Amino acid sequence: xxxxxxxxxxxxxxxxxxxxxxxxxxxxxxxxxxxxxxxxxxxxxxxxxxxxxxxxxxxxxxxxxxxxxxxxxxxxxxxxxxxxxxxxxxxxxxxxxxxxxxxxxxxxxxxxxxxxxxxxxxxxxxxxxxxxxxxxxxxxxxxxxxxxxxxxxxxxxxxxxxxxxxxxxxxxxxxxxxxxxxxxxxxxxxxxxxxxxxxxxxxxxxxxxxxxxxxxxxxxxxxxxxxxxxxxxxxxxxxxxxxxxxxxxxxxxxxxxxxxxxxxxxxxxxx
Length: 271
Fold this sequence. Notes:
Layout: H1 22-30, H2 68-78, E1 85-89, H3 95-104, E2 109-114, H4 119-127, E3 135-139, E4 151-157, H5 166-175, E5 177-188, E6 194-195, E7 198-199, H6 214-220, E8 224-231, E9 234-236, H7 240-249, E10 257-259, E11 263-269
Parallel strand pairs: 1-2, 1-4, 2-3, 4-5
Antiparallel strand pairs: 5-11, 6-7, 6-10, 8-11, 9-10
């Protein structure tokens, strides 16, 4: 069993978000007086991601993605299907981009946007496996987001936690969404994750707990908040949850119980 460091105390990692204005909550997120896990002692630091009736959406081709279920639920709520125009902001290697391309078909289009030029070839290679898919890869910072056309759905996951200004990015995403179109954002509350009861941390992220503010942020961006929820996978011993944590942190949790950071999903609509 490899050695696994632990956080100094469980309580040190908690961030509290009380009721109040968005400005107050945003200030708390950056308040240096709020205790956080010291980097030197942190364990399992993740290092460098109004509705109609529910439609039937084919299962997403994301079987190795432990967070796929809330995305599946969101797309079913929206009724996403053939012909939709979508934008995957912070697309990374394009897993979600390709899954969306399969759903929208040859009549639809998916824009894969990422700041890293190296991602272009990865996404293009992955998209080539989807017959007839229209995937357009754009190298661009989320803060500077501009698309050739307005889209029906603007989507991001594990993006806002890394950008300088999450609210500015949400406003840019709203600006490329058509009237009555949808924005779906999914962000974690990192310090709510647990390994054997000990809080997780993510020192590399600018806003590791931005998920706790996400519903208020989309409203501040001028969008109609339609629904929001949080969901986390849990496990103990070998399995997808343990593998996911080891891939991100480099630490094998062994047989310890794991609750991954809850992923907050928001469904918002442009008026």
